Amino acid sequence: MKDKDREIWIGENRLYLGEDSIIYITVIGEQNGEIAIAFKETLLKFVNMAGGRTSVLVDLNKGGKTSPEARKIWSELTTREEFSKTALFGLHPVAKVLASFVMGVTRKKDMRFFESREKALAWLKQ
Predict the structure, then answer these.
(1) DSSP state of 87
(2) Taking CA 100 as the corner, what is the angle to CA 96 and CA 105, rounded to the nearest 5 degrees?
């Protein structure tokens, strides 16, 4: 599999399927329904490429406002069985708001918020 197949840009946002079968997401700026739909399609493509369940690492440091449409799509994604663990991280105040929303709308226990990428990644690899 070529590296270019493992990395997809949606606007300023980067999604990457690592060799470790973790999906790395860097969220940049405001998010709307159109972007969220593209995220969903890419995430499901990556799950298929990985051959099963994957974990997700989300960098929210540069994330912005999220539309109600996008929040709805993301909350649906977080409940899917294809994703075993989801770690969100960021020190930006908006990151904490985004993470608390996502974690609040899902009953999934395998989702946590961290202040650093290192701590988030360590938890995913446990």
Answers:
(1) E
(2) 155
- One-letter amino acid identity for 29? G
Instruction: Read off the pLDDT band of 39 (50, 70, 90).
Output: very high
Q: Which domain holds residue 19?
A: 3-124
The whole-model pTM stands at: 0.88
Domain CATH number, residue 60: 3.30.750.24
Q: Cα separation of 107 and 22, whole Å?
A: 21
* Residue 73, Ramachandran bin (φ over 0: left; ψ between -120 and 50: alpha; else beta): alpha
Which one, of 38, 41, 43, 121, lies nearest residue 83 by Cα? 43
Partners of 63 in beta bridges: 29
In whole angstroms, what is the distance from residue 124 CA to residue 9 CA?
23
- The pair of structure tokens assigned to 13 is 């946002």
Pairing of strands 7-10, 13-17: antiparallel
Question: Total domain count for the chain?
Answer: 1
